[in-house]
Amino acid sequence: MPDRTASDLAQFIRDRAGDTPVEIALVLGSGLGGLADDVDGIAIGYDQLTGFPGTGVSGHRADLVIGRLEGRQVAVLGGRAHYYERGDAAAMRLPLEVVKALGATRILLTNAAGSLDPGMPTGSAMMLNDHINFSGLNPLIGESTDARFVPMTDAYAPHLRTTLAAAAERAGQTLFEGIYAWYSGPSFETPAEIRAIRTLGADAVGMSTVPEVILSRFLGLEVAAISAITNMAAGMSDEVIGHEHTKEMAPIAAAKIARILKAALPDL
Length: 268
Description:
Elements: H1 6-17, E1 24-27, E2 40-45, E3 63-69, E4 72-77, H2 83-86, H3 93-101, E5 106-115, E6 125-132, H4 158-170, E7 176-182, H5 191-200, E8 204-206, H6 210-218, E9 222-232, H7 243-264
Parallel strand pairs: 1-4, 1-5, 5-9, 6-7, 7-8
Antiparallel strand pairs: 2-3, 3-4, 5-8, 6-9
Helix pairs in contact: 1-3, 4-7
């Protein structure tokens, strides 16, 4: 089948989900896919969307859900591709271009992350206010236009962060706030790497999200993001860190994040 452009795919989706413009897009990380089940709409498998990446990570669902959630028209990407799967930092570019073509102007990203703050335990939710691209990789490498020079000051829109913080308070949920460091994975970090990232000022570390933030800002989407804290980082506790542990612990924070996002959506 020939490659499809974002415009082609957006029309394919409209033919199935209707013409109502999407207002907000969401990307769901490990253990957070259950939020898509609350959307009143239609699910389209990534395998029907030519050019969408497969999600080769257990704990991620490979579908796009279009419909209503808390009174807003949303596009929910039930899973993401990670750099470590194929060595492509721009793997999520086409899906993000598609949600933009469907009308989205804002995007809410979620992920699973390890805590670098002893006061932010496993099961917490942390809103990102900045990030450190510890990997040094960039999804815009190879982009030929001057649009590649994307300013990243306030990459996480202050007004969206204010809305999320207020929603968390209304929902009775504790929402930490901090800096996320992107480590390429798939191996977890060493204790020495964690000490280095902590010295640089990071509060949490994970293997995703930063490429999507860069791509979203490149596309003109406003960004907010929340991490589900699934473990304390290497060397900070006696937890046995691994993907099974991540999948086991993610639902604890995911339930908090779902309540916060549902409370926030009407005001976003």
